């Protein structure tokens, strides 16, 4: 068991270049935090949300921008052991959170086609509602750089579109609420290195689908995992692959694509071909 707060200190010391600086760069480059923001940090119990909570807690103490933080943890139907592990980590890391209970796992466990998508959508809506009730105007999620590039490739390979995960966005159906992703520029391997260096053990997904996959000795059977492995293989030959995927959705040349749309307004290259 690491000493109290040593994991927080490691963010600004040992992992300053790989974690702390990318977080601050993302916040600055994408204007993620504004004066007097009331931010709910969504602490799910995994490595990403725990790191996010630690980092924003540290930032709040030194930032020139005044903002408030509220830890927010949903219990979607955890086992007693899983809930206890999350609570132990929160206490050990010197964090605070407000718990509320849902029956989300019961709903998701009845879904057979795409339970992970349904879980994410329902979880997000629930967090929006709770954060608004607490007077927050933003929720901070723990999506990192690898989530971004994996989403980009997933949308191309399995969705037939070029679409990525944005560093912030306005919440649909929840006026005044925004999502921010301060870990946007942090690599997952560096989060894992922080976890291991600090001897931390975090919760992995504990729904019945994840439990079944573990029982079948196939914990990583998703399309996202396949894409993750594909990127890792490509990086063995070219260490710029991940960065290039990320940059590709910042450098789209509309003169050299077949079509594009913004909402229902659609265009093709033929619209201006003879002009």
Produce a short descriptive summary.
With 275 residues, this protein is α/β, with parallel strands linked by helices.
Number of domains: 1
Q: SSE order in H/E notation?
A: HHEHEHEHHEHEEHHHHEE
Number of strands: 8
Q: Output the structural class.
A: alpha/beta
- Identify the CATH class: Alpha Beta
Q: What is the oligomer described by this structure?
A: single chain
- CATH 2nd-level architecture: 3-Layer(aba) Sandwich
CATH fold assignment: Rossmann fold
Strands side by side in the biggest sheet: 3-2-1-4-6-5
What's the average pLDDT?
A: 90
Distance separating the two termini? 68 Å
How many helices does DSSP assign?
A: 11
Classify the helix fraction into a percent range: 40-55%
Main β-sheet description: 6 strands, mixed
Features:
Rossmann fold, 275 residues, alpha/beta, 8 strands, two-stranded antiparallel ribbon
Provide the fold topology:
Blueprint lengths: L5 H7 L3 H14 L7 E6 L4 H16 L4 E9 L4 H13 L5 E4 L2 H5 L6 H19 L4 E3 L4 H15 L8 E3 L7 E3 L7 H10 L10 H8 L7 H15 L3 H8 L10 E4 L2 E4 L7
Parallel strand pairs: 1-2, 1-4, 2-3, 4-6
Antiparallel strand pairs: 5-6, 7-8
Helix pairs in contact: 7-10, 7-11
Can you describe what's shown?
It is a single chain. The chain has 275 residues and is α/β, with parallel strands linked by helices. It has a single domain, classed as HUPs (Rossmann fold, 3-Layer(aba) Sandwich). 47% of the residues lie in helices and 13% in strands. It has helices at 6-12, 16-29, 47-62, 80-92, 104-108, 115-133, 145-159, 188-197, 208-215, 223-237, 241-248, and strands at residues 37-42, 67-75, 98-101, 138-140, 168-170, 178-180, 259-262, 265-268. A hairpin with a 7-residue loop joins strand 5 (168-170) and strand 6 (178-180).
